[in-house]
Amino acid sequence: MTSAFDVVIVGAGIAGCACARELADAGVQVAIIESQSPGSGATAAGMGHIVVMDDSPAQLALTKFARSLWQKLSADLPASIEYEERGTLWIAAEEDELAAVQKKHAACAAAEIRSEVFDSAALAEAEPNLRPGLAGALFVPEDAILYPPAAATALLHAAEERGAQLIRGTVAKAGHGAITLADGTTLASDHIVVATGADFHLVPWVRLKKRKGHLVITDRYPGFVRHQLVELGYLKSAHSIVSDSVAFNIQPRTTGQLLIGSSRQYRQDDLAADSFVVELILRRAYLFMPKLAALSATRVWTGFRAATSDKLPLIGPTHDPTLYLLAGFEGLGITVAPAAARLLVDHLLARKTAIDPAPYLPERMERAEAVLA
Amino acid sequence: MSTDAEILVIGSGPAGITAAAIAAAHGRNVLLLDDNLAPGGQIWREPTTAHPEDRDDARRKALFSLRASGARVWSGWRVFDAPRERTLRAIEDSSPDVHTIDISYQKLILATGARERFLPFPGWTLPGVFGAGGLQALARGGFSVAGKRIVIAGTGPLLLPVAAHLRQMGARVTTVAEQASRAQLARFSAYLSRQPGKLLEGLQYRAATGGSRYKFGCWPLAALGADKLEAVRLTNGERTWEEPCDLLGCGFHLVPNIELPSLLGCRLHKGFVTVDELQQTSVTNTFAAGELTGIAGLDSALLTGTIAGLAAAGKAEETKLLLRHREKLRRFAERLNAGFALRPELLQLAQPDTIVCRCEDVTHASLTAYNNWNDAKRQTRCGMGPCQGRVCGPATTALFGWHTGSVRPPLFPVPLSAMGARPQR
Amino acid sequence: MPDHVTITVNGRNLRVKPGTIVSAALLAAGIPCRTSKSGQPRTAFCGMGICFECSVTVDGIPNRRTCQLLCRPGMVINTQ
Q1: Averaged over B100-107, what is the pLDDT?
Q2: What pTM, to 2 d.p., does this model score?
């Protein structure tokens, strides 16, 4: 098989599909290779929370850009993606967390992101099923939710409509101008994008760590929770590089089912659900919403996130001039996908970028290692 | 809360009752668990309201043996997890107080039985349409069917007994439509005649359904009505007609409840739990009996329950005399299932807008875009509702040949409090 | 043994024979248990606790299956 493609993407998760759509939109001949099914890996395990995260200016810029792209995409993509602008409530349990609320509010304002400080009464009114006595929250109204597997396939279909081609196959090797499939066939390409989620065996030299997560989904309780609710402590959990943790994070789906998370574990290699971790997640959740205990759980599932050491993703070229990365999104893969795709395609087509791509370039990792050496 | 038993039996249908009774009669500490209101499972379901006297001697004898055996019997408990080696977790939540318990065991006997297979057809979600066994169960639970016009349709050995019981309760069962052809069933009946007990059973049921038309090679095309069922459109492949009725009981044979065996890692073959001559599964200390090991009816459930109970109680040598009968019943099961094999027309009944997944209202048309269960589930939500694929799973297996994925706890929806600590005050 | 049990369904009283299960009571009264995602009325279907079509709110707790639940005096049912 020779290559009739300008760009070949490995992995039809949400990042790969977003990339395929960007490229096809620009008239580029693109193929996307998937070994399982589109949107079935890390994409399917995610909550589907589109959120601006402010733990660093680079994170804030990327997520803000991504959120605005999702707002535009939601008008073009079908209703099956279940995009809803529910907003996020970052919850401060105790008084001493209110300073963090104010800090976040200021950071949002500086970045021209709408947010509103809620006191205890306002929070109780916004979410009556939270326990009384929580100190307050920051409301970020333009954050959204969607259903990731449907979003990935919708992006893929949009790409296919513009000429992108989906190839079912398992990639054994990728780089240096060629892709070799498990069945021995090869594709030549000067531009190979690796977007394989939590599976990075194709790029073993990239320093990524798998972080296992658990989610519990309930039966239907329409109106029980109205916004995405996240505890302020979530940031601490998400950004610890070494330790295992849980943090309260709950999302209402259009069906009225609730997704309850979240957990992060290192050094876990299998996707078996761990009831001990589920118990920890629930105990944490009850601290904020004790009424959850009576709701029915229908399913537990797990997934892996890919994490980098500096908490920013890898978007762009590598030391191999034919190989590019869309990787290391940790818990922000769904949010960041369209922005990462746009940045990469801007680079490929030498277009002006909307935000500075430097903080996400893979070469920063290689530089950092050179410094340590 | 926790407890333990030497022998834990899950499922109190004929197989579970028999296994528990015989193991306890041999002096073992036995606990029999079931999620229904009382022992009996499906075919021996106890009516909850005043009911015409059942002439079912086998049932009365088995329940008596169970009571006399000393086995602990817990009704209303359902198993939803296997958190540790040789431990099952169960929940009882008939009242607002939820009770969960971890049960440790030395030997486990799985007798979770079977459920009806439902195939989608236009109108099957209308009020007034039920499973065949479902309609009987609801009638036994106090739903008065007296004077109601009922059509029973589908396939399987349950159709006649269901029709008979409903008639006993005063219903006008106008038609029993069995999709298997006369020829197909004749082959099965010929085999039946070598099992006189069964033939008699058949004749008794026929007598009880006197007044109903029993039609071979006849199946439903649609349930008709505006807000509720008013008529059923039936066909025999040549002629099509509409039969006015109040209620339709429709089921297409049985599929085993293999969720718990799967969770425990029991090996399956063609969707049933594989067992050796002592009813042992591929998992040590774990036995299976009854419909889990093959849809084979009451006699087989009683026999395999006996073998499993004896073997678990350490009395394997007493099972030797039963082996030949076991083999005969196994062959009977094969004939039974061949007799009620689904005709291809049944797989074409669903129209594009016919709902296949009732929990999520996923239509047939949405599913045809996929070629496997996992993709369809992920993209359409088919199987993601509270039934956890118990209705749409077997339907999509029949319609599309899909195999549903691996099983994870909770096996049934349970309150979150059952999955972790109770909330802090 | 009382000759009837009274439960409340959507605010109205319903008298049933002792030993009646909740979904049977709702069927007899012609009241659907729930409205499906696409707006269809649904009643009990499988009769054995598998299909969840008979889910209603019982004494304030939503999504309770009613095909294995006996009517108790004073039980409050709200369909979903």
Answers
A1: 96
A2: 0.90
